[in-house]
Amino acid sequence: MLVMLAPGLKVCQDRNAARDDDERLDFGYSSLEAELEREVGGIGWWFDTSALSPEETARQILNEAPQRAVVLT
Q1: Cβ(51)–Cβ(43) under 8 Å?
Q2: Three-state secondary structure call for residue 45
Q3: Is 49 exposed, middle or buried (0-12, 13-18, 19+ CB in 10 A)?
Q4: CA distance 64 to 73
């Protein structure tokens, strides 16, 4: 199952800025969401993780994946 963690642009920028220098990712934020939507939009579960910790995110994925998973034939 594809789970797209989608916290939104502002949260993504804030989280990246809070990382140590050697852990930061450098990419074009302005086009990221549009590019992802164009490439994989409508596929999988676009999960807004903006208000969740990593632990909460993992727990929610484990709890909801069985109901959200779709088997394509």
Answers
A1: no
A2: strand
A3: buried
A4: 21
- Report which of 6, 11, 14 is spatially closest to residue 34, judged by C-alpha positions: 6
Q: Rounded to whole angstroms, how far apart are CA atoms 50 and 8?
A: 7
User: In this structure, what token pair is assigned to residue 28?
Assistant: 């074009």
pLDDT at 71 over 70: no
- As a residue count, the chain comes to 73
CA–CA separation, 1 vs 65, rounded Å?
8
38 vs 29, higher pLDDT:
38
Residue 1 CA to residue 45 CA, distance in Å, equals 8
